[in-house]
Every structure is written in C-alpha cells, then in structure tokens.
Design goal:
Blueprint (H helix, E strand, L loop, with lengths): L25 H16 L4 E3 L9 E5 L12 E13 L2 E5 L9 E5 L2 E7 L5 E7 H14 L10 H29 L1
The structure holds cobalt (II) ion.
Length: about 180
C-alpha cells in the first residue's frame, strides 16, 4: 500500500472524464487500496481516481454516519457508478482535497440511488442520504471531470476560484519561506 500524490486544481486531469473500468483484477484492487490509504492519510471522506492522476470511473469513500442509530457503512470501493434516481435538495459546506483550504456551499440532491460495481465487478446498489449522498455526488462528479466549483452559479464560482488562487499563493509563499529557513 502507498500514499499517492494528490493532484490539485488547476491540474488538467481533474477535467478529464473517466473511462469505464472493465478489468477487475489485482491491479484494480491495488489502486483502490492505495486510494483508500491516501484518503485516510489526508483525512478525507472520499477520493476519486482523477485526484490521484487516473482518468477512470472509480472512487473510494468512508463517511461517518450522521445519526448514531445508522450503522456505519465503512470503507466503500465504488467502480463505474451511475446515479439512477435522485430526490430532494440539500446544501452542504464542502471541501475537496484537490482544492486545499477552499470551502464552499454546494446545492445537491438530498438522496441518491447509486448503481455501481465493487472491486470484484459484482453489481451493487446503494441508497444514500445526507452527507453520504453529498460525498457520492461530489466524487461521481470527479469521475465525470467535474469539480465542486463547477456546481456554483457563475459569480460565486468566479469568487471561489479567486479565493482559491489566493490560498494557493499563500501556501506557496509559506513553502518558500520554510525552505529559506532550512537552508
Ligand atoms: Co473533491
């Protein structure tokens, strides 16, 4: 297992639509395990293939239950996901490991029914609500080459991207001054 490098915006891989996965072999399982390890290392609740430089339709997620009486689903390996039904509306303050530091309110469906395949290619179904539904929609967008700022109205999107550019410059500035200190 290995922690992979996370691609950050504006890396062009984040705009690439993922290809369908048709080989459910050891290589695929290793990619999924590495993605899970990377997600935990960065304290994320979801991670899509594009975020580690692969234009494929796969993602991992591990979302804590919102309600104590809900049983936790734990780590999910989701391959070739399709949203077959959606209901309601929810606004969540989302972050993204590919946009470090940026948090934005995004409007999504409150419930999604997702059909997918697991790491062995078996057909699965999942009905998700709340945070898990938000997370799945965010990650399924990634496998379609869509990032969370694309879900904002034009003006809010412009402001969010400007804000992110500022955060990125500040982070780069910090890296440079740390190098100065250590040299
Ligand atoms: Co993301």
């Amino acid at each position: 297992m290995a922690v992979l490098k996370i691609r950050t915006w504006p890396d062009p891989i984040l705009k690439q639509k993922g290809a369908l996965v048709d080989r459910f072999d050891e290589d695929l399982r290793r990619i999924l395990e590495d993605m899970a390890e990377t997600m935990y290392a960065y304290k994320g609740i979801g991670l899509a293939a594009q975020q580690v430089g692969l234009a494929l339709r796969l993602l991992v997620c591990d979302v804590p239950p919102m309600d104590e009486k809900d049983k936790p689903l734990g780590l999910l390996y989701i391959v070739n996901p399709v949203i077959v039904r959606r209901e309601g509306e929810i606004t969540w303050n989302e972050g993204c490991l590919s946009f470090p530091g940026l948090e934005i309110d995004v409007r999504r469906s409150e419930m999604v029914h997702v059909a997918y395949q697991n790491e062995r290619g078996e057909k699965k179904d999942l009905i998700a609500r709340g945070l898990l539904a938000v997370c799945l929609q965010h990650e399924i967008d990634h496998v379609d080459g869509i990032v969370f700022t694309d879900r904002l109205p034009p003006l809010a999107r412009k402001m969010a991207l400007r804000n992110y550019e500022r955060l990125r410059r500040e982070a780069q500035g910090r890296e440079v001054s740390q190098k100065d200190l250590s040299s």
